[in-house]
Design goal:
CATH superfamily of the largest domain: Glycogen Phosphorylase B
Shape: globular
Helix content: 25-40%
CATH topology of the largest domain: Rossmann fold
Structural class: alpha/beta
Radius of gyration: 22 Å
Distance between the termini: 12 Å
Length: 396
């Protein structure tokens, strides 16, 4: 697909310090199309309650007229920050009152987007909605795109923040969209209940920084930790990860070091694993240091809980682990079956403990090369090519 004007609205700010599907897709779209990436406006409660973060800093500067709303990122790509705030609606009771204020927010957002589109000479835009259930709920009527595409990359329904309204509103936005594209089979199966033009387009991953041939130094934080190191990198959150499983592995394998890299939630901070001498928490690290830490691991883990949140989740980190040639051990889910020829998939703590020994003993240069080749097949180019295919069918 070439020569189109595409507007992207979503949940993740362009300035988010971690990886983002929407940002990677925007960059891929912009190779052959013009793209306007819209950062969602700040709501009143976020401004009043939260300290500025890298994700909100620039939007606050735009609100205070210290920065211009529109910035050009590359030849075909612009990012728009809203020079206004919107109502905080999530705390309202579900139903008419929520809809009244949410519709006002939508009208304010899309009136301004249309003004900027006119400035950029965008016409007949394709609207790509990245899981933006509330703030893009009325976008089809207000923006009048040539094509409305809902991108379901996460199941938001179990999260406490979303529970009040999402069960009513997500089916509604899926129905109203021309097509829905999803990054796993499970997420697509859900969307098909409300729109039969719902498709699994797979997951893309930017693996340009994950090159095992690069000469990575051992991070200072790991120099006191003996090998073999069995590690996890990411958000250390008990909604997604199983702390008891990690504790069981570390207790069963005292001769190995278990390294957890990332911010811990309250459950992990209070967990008994902190008393084990072979479990190490490094805290969060900058995104550009992630490959360096992976290079220091003998095995990489994705010890997920099995729940509504994780069951259909596509774990980008597994592709990153594999791209570094690392043996990977992960909890078995329907989505993870995609990785079964290259990842040790486990259902029980006993299987995890057995897999650790297998992963260490069976590793070879041949297996490393196979893992790397498999991970690199999951490119954004391939995923976006699939998105384009369904977009074009719908336009035709």
């Amino acid at each position: 697909m070439k020569g189109k004007d595409i507007v992207i609205t979503g949940l993740q700010s362009w300035d988010i310090p971690i990886g983002s599907n929407a940002i990677d897709i925007a960059k891929e779209f912009a190779k052959d199309n013009r793209v306007l990436y819209v950062n969602s406006p700040l709501d009143m409660m976020t401004m009043l309650r939260n300290k500025p973060t890298p994700e909100t800093k620039r939007r606050l500067e735009v609100l205070n007229r210290r920065k211009k709303p529109l910035r050009k990122i590359s030849q075909n790509l612009w990012v728009l920050d809203m020079p206004f705030w919107v109502w905080s609606v999530n705390g309202l009771p579900d139903g008419m009152l929520f809809d009244i204020f949410n519709k006002r927010n939508n009208r304010k957002i899309f009136s301004y987007i249309k003004k900027v589109m006119k400035q950029l000479n965008f016409s007949d835009p394709i609207h790509f909605i990245d899981n933006d259930i509330y703030r893009s709920q009325y976008s089809k009527k207000m923006l009048e795109p040539s094509l409305s595409v809902y991108y379901r990359r996460d199941n938001l329904q179990p999260f406490a923040y979303w529970k009040k309204h999402v069960q009513r509103l997500e089916p509604q936005i899926i129905r109203n969209s021309d097509i829905a594209v999803c990054n796993s089979i499970q997420l697509a199966d859900f969307a098909k209940q409300f729109n039969n033009k719902s498709f699994d387009v797979g997951q893309g991953v930017d693996l340009s920084a994950y090159d095992p041939e690069l000469p990575f130094d051992l991070p200072e934080e790991l120099q006191h930790i003996p090998a073999p190191r069995i590690g996890y990198i990411g958000d250390i959150n008990s909604l997604r990860l199983d702390p008891d499983l990690i504790h069981n592995m570390a207790k069963s394998k005292p001769e190995y070091s278990f390294v957890m890299v990332g911010n811990e939630d309250a459950v992990f901070k209070a967990h008994a694993m902190h008393s084990l001498p072979n479990v190490h928490f490094t805290g969060s690290i900058a995104k550009d240091r992630v490959p360096q830490f992976m290079a220091a691991f003998s095995i990489c883990l994705n010890p997920q809980q099995l729940n509504e949140i994780t069951i259909g989740n596509y774990p980008r980190k597994v592709d990153e682990y594999l791209a570094m040639g690392k043996p990977v051990i992960a909890t078995r889910t329907k989505t993870m079956e995609l990785f079964k020829d290259h990842v040790y998939l486990c259902d029980t703590p006993e299987e995890y403990n057995d897999a650790i020994e297998k992963a260490l003993n069976e590793n070879s240069v041949k297996l490393e090369k196979e893992r790397i080749a498999f991970a690199r097949s999951h490119s954004w180019q391939n995923s976006v090519r699939s998105i384009y295919q369904y977009m074009q069918q719908a336009l035709n």
